[in-house]
Design brief:
single chain, about 500 residues, alpha/beta, four-stranded parallel beta sheet, 16 helices, about 50% helix, elongated
């Protein structure tokens, strides 16, 4: 089953084919570290953690990079207000980020670059754009010439005419065209700065990611991701710079998660309608927010409320209970006449789960498959409790259903970190051993039937038995001392 991904660049759902077979390079824009993280940041963290986990679950070798913007107007302004160096602010909120990530079981990125440790790479990147004629310097500022990149707007689906209508020049800017954007900003009194060919200054926001991607992942990556609000201008500007410089695609697939809203308005610090991640995990298990986020398709808006979080807690408890109630069934007496089992339901749930996940990471449909299995598990449990006993087969099927839920939600969604596996490994080994013994007896019986058929010259029956066993992985060898068999 192939994985399909909605590509923002084409606006279509496409089959995922990585640039190099078996390897996936992902870059996701990280946080600007000037304040604590809220649920909007948390959604992006959870969504791309899920995407990374699922790609890895499919067998890909994933290299995942997420940056920190640790120098920015907001960081500088906060540092001025608190009368501390900007690095104090950046370090404080990077530490806060890691605390949130640990609480929500967000796996650390393989590489987590900071802007301030990549200044030489950024300067080199900008200089190459200047040399190629796509950027120009004015009084220490360096700007990108948007009109020179003919495909500008292809990611966000905006035309130059539309952009001109909304363009404006900020006070103090000396760019030649209102559409142009800053790659390097000349230093101002009291602000952090670095030496460059254009004088002291600091990077523009849209340039830093390009330079860090080039350094750590190369000129073309498989997936570039971030929140929907980054599509324009941030990602549009990244794409323009990178492709202007290399004349090749910057990212094969662009993935953007939908925004978090509160009463229909985007959750943001400027509106004051945000809920911090710390507020969430002080009141709820972090898995509950993960489930709320993943219960909505990653591209759809997520309207947050405490009421929805409370409803999600109940759904989370249902999943958790379905796993833990194995203990109840284990205490029931054995009843060989108990016929109900879950193997057909397990197979269907597993098939539906992976079909949904491979359809643009459709987590709501994947959870629907899981909840459907939970319903069947509850039916079995209630029946066994009512009858006062359960068969070994039924109990084992319940355990395997619970284990499917446990492992998929742990490995792909990051849930149930503290729970133990539902299926006892030694018990499974014993069952497999018993199955193997039964199979060997059946093979010997079939060989006897085949030998009898051959003696009676019923070769069509003999050949049918031989060919049928071969399809099952059993190879028969006729020798002078009798028929031997082995597994293929």
């Amino acid at each position: 089953m192939s994985l399909k991904i909605h590509n923002t660049l084409t606006g279509k759902e496409e089959e995922f084919v990585p640039i190099n077979p078996g390897e996936v390079k992902i870059y996701v824009c990280g946080v600007t570290v000037y304040d604590v993280n809220h649920v909007g940041h948390g959604r992006s963290l959870i969504v791309f953690d899920m995407i990374r986990r699922y790609l890895r679950y499919l067998g890909y070798n994933v290299t995942f990079v997420r940056n920190f913007t640790d120098v920015d107007d907001k960081i500088i302004n906060r540092a001025k207000n608190e009368c501390v160096p900007f690095t104090v602010i950046a370090d404080r909120y990077i530490k806060s980020y890691y605390e949130d990530a640990e609480n929500f079981k967000i796996e650390p990125a393989d590489i987590e670059p900071r802007v301030t440790t990549h200044i030489p790479d950024i300067i080199d990147f900008i200089q190459k754009l200047v040399d190629k004629g796509y950027a120009y310097e004015v009084d220490g500022d360096v700007y990108f010439s948007v009109r020179k990149f003919k495909e500008y707007g292809k990611l966000s689906k905006r035309s130059i005419d539309e952009l001109i209508a909304g363009a404006r020049v900020e006070p103090g800017e000396k760019k030649k065209d209102p559409l142009d954007f800053a790659l390097w900003k000349a230093s101002k009194a009291g602000e952090p700065s670095w030496d460059s060919p254009w004088g002291k200054g600091r990077p523009g926001w849209h340039t830093e990611c390009c330079a860090m991607i080039f350094k750590h992942l190369g000129e073309t990556i498989d997936i570039h991701g971030g929140g929907l609000d980054l599509t324009f201008p941030h990602h549009e500007n990244e794409l323009a710079q990178a492709e202007a410089l290399t004349d090749r695609p910057f990212a094969k697939y662009w993935i953007h998660n939908g925004l978090v809203t509160v009463n229909g308005q985007k959750m943001s610090k400027s509106l004051g309608n945000y809920i911090t991640l710390k507020e969430i995990y002080e009141k709820y298990h972090p898995d509950v927010l993960r489930l709320l986020v993943l219960s909505v398709h990653y591209r759809s808006p997520l309207d947050f409320s405490w009421e929805k979080l409370e409803e999600t807690k109940k759904a989370y408890d249902r999943l958790k209970n379905a796993i833990e109630e194995v203990k109840i069934l284990e205490k029931l007496p054995e009843n060989p006449d108990f016929e109900y089992h879950l193997y057909d339901q397990i197979a269907k749930a597993e098939q539906d789960f992976y079909a949904s996940m491979s359809d643009d990471f459709n987590t709501p449909e994947a959870f629907a498959a899981i909840y459907g299995l939970v319903r069947e598990m509850n039916i079995l449990k209630d029946k066994a409790v009512k009858e006062g006993g359960i068969s070994k087969k039924a109990l084992q099927s319940y355990k395997e259903a619970a284990d499917l839920i446990y492992k998929t939600t742990r490995d792909i969604f990051g849930f149930f970190d503290s729970l133990k596996p539902c299926v006892d490994v030694e018990e499974v080994k014993q069952i497999e051993k018993e199955k193997s013994a039964i199979d060997e007896e059946l093979v010997e019986i079939l060989i006897e039937v085949r030998n009898k058929a051959r003696k009676e010259k019923k070769f069509d029956i003999a050949d049918y038995i031989r060919d049928s066993l071969k399809e099952k992985g059993i190879i028969l060898e006729d020798t002078p001392v009798g028929t031997k068999w082995k597994k293929a």
